[in-house]
């Protein structure tokens, strides 16, 4: 990767030195005789007024700001992200003369890669600010390309973040990213399908909406009807995207630890994890899921939900969001749906809601101190609760700051939020504590999942091979 081009700006400091020596008055001579009038003392000439040095206007600064997305991407309420950012940045620029923000949505493709950003980095022209999910921003930190954002936060800002929310955004004392929002991974259930089949009594009930893996399987087998194009659930492994939806199942098997950050080792081949994945493969073996998981991606899985051909899915907030958009656009039929917890192994605690990877700000290395200061000011503005909350709601997520005034009367949002608070949270991305190359580990995990969703898969062997490969990746970190 080419090094980032250093932009050298010479700041010239003007100073005017002035010295004014006032002429001294000459004393009047003594009168020659008492009769003679006394000489009048001439006033001393006034010292010239000091010349004011005009205050120089701040040097113009252009900040390139990219957010992960594509043209035409809309917020949860239908507003185009480009329109929202244009209004926000127009107001910001008006209040900050000399600052210009060059904004663009960049990077999106079906597999969720950052090819556009990677190309810009390789060419020495990365954006100044990049807003994306933490695991994607982290690979630039792994390459030592990001600034420390600690100066962008005041003491009251830092106090508004739970330490757990920022732990994964630090390398030592360096804060390489600042989180804006996080989602919640629980299960979404098409209640209309269960009502039509007369099977609603098999679903979890308020107030906990929890169930065991055994209860889940009973409901799953009851609703599954491939002959009429209705499947219980779906998984996909055709890309790294949404691997957290599979990982969230591990929260119901609390003895299964995917990664040990203290030892910097992957441990997903333990007996507890083999038990969890053997359970998941049972869903495949019984034909209770949409076929072809090894090759499916999110874009090819979503239509099954929107067409009401699948009854239960993980990634609850995502399917809530696209359902509302589809119904509003007339491309998907309205249906009743509820949120429930991922099932827990019998005897285990209720499964906590998975907190999806937060969206964060990262700043690429700068050589101009004045420009970096302007960037810090912009980041501080963006992470304030009122702005970060709008971003979170726009993505169908939750603001990370604890002082964000966020309330919702929509049960599809309020109930999972309450569940997240009630049962705690779970990290299905396992990015915290990973020293480097998390993207490479995710690729290895996607390939393991592709092999997993096959007939006669050897669960233990597949997990052993992944652990060996993943540990080789992280132990080779510089």
Describe it for me?
- It contains 16 helices and 15 strands.
- The chain is an alpha+beta fold and 478 residues long.
- The chain folds into 2 domains: 176 residues, Periplasmic binding protein-like II (D-Maltodextrin-Binding Protein, domain 2, 3-Layer(aba) Sandwich); 211 residues, D-Maltodextrin-Binding Protein, domain 2 (3-Layer(aba) Sandwich).
- The chain is globular.
- The two termini are 16 Å apart.
Please describe the structure with a list of short key phrases separated by commas or semicolons.
478 residues, alpha+beta, D-Maltodextrin-Binding Protein, domain 2, 2 domains, 6-stranded mixed sheet, 3-stranded antiparallel sheet, 16 helices, 15 strands, disordered N terminus
CATH superfamily of the largest domain: Periplasmic binding protein-like II
Separation of termini?
16 Å
Total individual domains? 2
Q: Classify the beta-strand content into a percent band.
A: 5-15%
The strand order across the widest sheet is: 2-1-3-13-6-14
Low-confidence stretches: 1-48
Kindly report the CATH topology of the largest domain: D-Maltodextrin-Binding Protein, domain 2
Number of strands: 15
The number of helical runs is: 16
What form results from the Cα inertia axes?
A: globular
Tell me about the largest β-sheet.
Answer: 6 strands, mixed
CATH class of the largest domain reads Alpha Beta
Which percent bin holds the helix content? 25-40%
Known CATH architecture of the largest domain: 3-Layer(aba) Sandwich
């Amino acid at each position: 990767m080419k090094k980032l081009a250093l932009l050298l700006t010479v700041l010239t400091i003007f100073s005017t030195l002035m010295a004014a020596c006032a002429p001294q008055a000459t004393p009047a001579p003594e009168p020659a005789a008492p009769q003679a009038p006394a000489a009048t003392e001439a006033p001393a000439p006034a010292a010239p007024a000091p010349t004011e040095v005009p205050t120089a206007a701040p040097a113009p600064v252009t900040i390139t700001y990219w957010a992960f997305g594509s043209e035409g991407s809309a917020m949860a309420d239908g507003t185009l992200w480009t329109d929202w950012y244009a209004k926000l940045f127009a107001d910001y620029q008006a209040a900050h003369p000399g600052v210009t923000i060059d904004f663009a949505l960049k990077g999106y493709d079906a597999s969720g890669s950052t090819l556009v950003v990677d190309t810009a980095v390789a060419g020495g022209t990365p954006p100044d600010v990049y807003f994306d999910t933490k695991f994607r921003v982290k690979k630039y930190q792994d390459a030592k390309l990001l600034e420390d954002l600690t100066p962008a936060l005041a003491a009251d800002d830092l106090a508004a973040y739970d330490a757990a929310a920022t732990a994964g955004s630090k390398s030592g004392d360096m804060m390489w990213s600042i989180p804006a929002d996080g989602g919640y991974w629980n299960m979404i259930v098409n209640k209309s399908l269960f009502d039509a089949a007369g099977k609603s009594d098999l679903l979890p009930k308020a107030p906990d909406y929890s169930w065991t893996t055994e209860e889940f399987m009973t409901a799953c087998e009851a609703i599954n009807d491939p002959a009429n194009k209705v499947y219980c659930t779906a998984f996909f492994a055709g890309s790294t995207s949404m691997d957290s939806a599979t990982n969230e199942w591990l929260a119901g098997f609390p003895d299964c630890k995917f990664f040990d950050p203290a030892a910097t080792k992957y441990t997903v081949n333990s007996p507890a994890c083999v038990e969890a994945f053997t359970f998941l493969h049972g869903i495949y073996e019984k034909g209770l899921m949409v076929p072809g998981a090894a090759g499916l991606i999110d874009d090819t899985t979503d239509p099954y939900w929107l067409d009401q051909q699948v009854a239960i899915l993980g990634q609850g907030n995502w399917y809530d969001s696209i359902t509302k958009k589809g119904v509003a656009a007339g491309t998907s039929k309205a249906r009743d749906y509820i949120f429930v917890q991922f099932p827990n192994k019998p005897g285990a605690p209720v499964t906590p809601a998975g907190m999806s990877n937060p969206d964060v700000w990262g700043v690429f290395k700068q050589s101009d101190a004045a420009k970096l200061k302007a960037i810090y000011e912009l980041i501080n503005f963006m992470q304030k609760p009122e702005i970060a909350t709008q971003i979170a709601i726009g993505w169908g997520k939750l603001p990370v700051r604890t002082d964000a005034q966020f309330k919702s009367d929509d049960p599809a949002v309020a109930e999972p939020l309450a569940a997240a608070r009630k049962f705690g949270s779970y990290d299905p991305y396992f990015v915290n504590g990973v020293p480097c190359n998390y993207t490479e580990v995710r690729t290895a995990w996607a390939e393991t999942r592709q092999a997993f969703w096959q007939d006669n898969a050897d669960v233990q062997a597949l997990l052993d091979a992944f652990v060996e490969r993943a540990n080789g990746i992280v132990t080779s970190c510089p």
